[in-house]
Amino acid sequence: MTFFGKFPLTTYDLEIPLGNKFAKPKTITDIFKRIALKQSLEEVGTVFGSYTIKDEDTPEIVADKLYGSAGLHWVVLLANDIINPVFDWPLSERELVPFIAHKYPGSTFFLNSLLISGQFREGLDVTTVSSNARGIVTAFDANLSSMVVENIFGVFQEGDTLVQDIGELVPVTGELTRRVTFSKDALRFFADPQGKPLNPLPLRDGYIQGGFGFPGIADVVTNEQHERNLNESKRIIRLIHPDRLEEILRDLETIFRRNELSRTL
User: Fold this and answer.
1) What is the mean pLDDT of the chain?
2) What is the pLDDT of residue 245?
3) Residue 252: what pLDDT?
């Protein structure tokens, strides 16, 4: 049984274009019943336990481990108010590595903040004065004095003067001071010892000049570490104790019947 298989159905008029026509009304799951279900779980005093999601665990695997049926994965999701497991369930290591690589493409260039003549623009080429290296700027962050460069041809080296023609009389220039080959390894933000993000302005120049952290003051959190932290924050979930499951399922079935009966009167 799928996640929404336990929920009542309702009819909506969906105007979905299909060529020169529109789709006919569809009978789809009334997901708004989730609200009533969540309330019912709390009202009957359901006791929840905690569970740490292991690598490669899926809602189906957890449901099978705990309840003996992968078909009860919807109970796992409902107990944690998860609507879309793709975004709200932690990725496995096998999934996380390519996800990070795809989200943070190209190389990240950090520029000497004192030697930038203007703001580099996204979508335009950037070149060097001393070589034929070329790439496309896909992101520029003035606070970090950095930019992401993709589709690189040639070799950009630290110390190069970067040039971007923005269609004005004078091009934008800047000095490439720190080059991070893979953007996943670039600075995302500075964090205090408790992990709280800090104002980057007083710290960025030290990082750009080659620093990797400021012991006791700030840590460098890279793009990859940021994504891994977010992923790990999803691992601890709550689960309905198996000895209460049958009672809850009966209660939910009663709610479904009551709701359907009231709609027919």
Assistant:
1) 83
2) 85
3) 73
Whose structure tokens read 């891994």? 228
Q: Which amino acid is at 227?
A: E
Output the six-digit token pair for 194: 């408790």
Beta bridge partners of 63: none
- What letters, b where the CB count within 10 A reaches 16 and e where it falls short, cover 73-82? bbbbbbbbeb
Q: What is the DSSP letter of 23?
A: P
Least confident of 130-134, 173-177, 213-217: 213-217
From CA 112, how far away is CA 136, in angstroms rounded? Answer: 19
Domain ranges in the chain are 3-90+235-264, 98-229
Q: How far apart are CA 185 and CA 201, in angstroms?
A: 20
Residue in 232, 206, 230 with CA at minimum distance from that of residue 217: 206
Share of the chain above pLDDT 70, in %: 78
CA distance to 4, 46, 51, 66, 70, per residue, from 242 (Å): 20, 11, 13, 7, 14
Structure confidence by residue, pLDDT tens digits, 160-184:
999 999 888 899 999 999 999 999 9
Q: What is the spatial distance between Cα 128 and Cα 123, in angstroms, rounded to a whole number?
A: 17
Paired with 171 in beta bridges are none
The residue type of 171 is P
CB-count burial class (<10 Å; 0-12, 13-18, 19+) for 203: buried
> Which residues does residue 175 pair with via DSSP β-bridges, in sequence order?
161
Would you state the structure tokens that stand for residue 255, as one six-digit string?
A: 């709610």
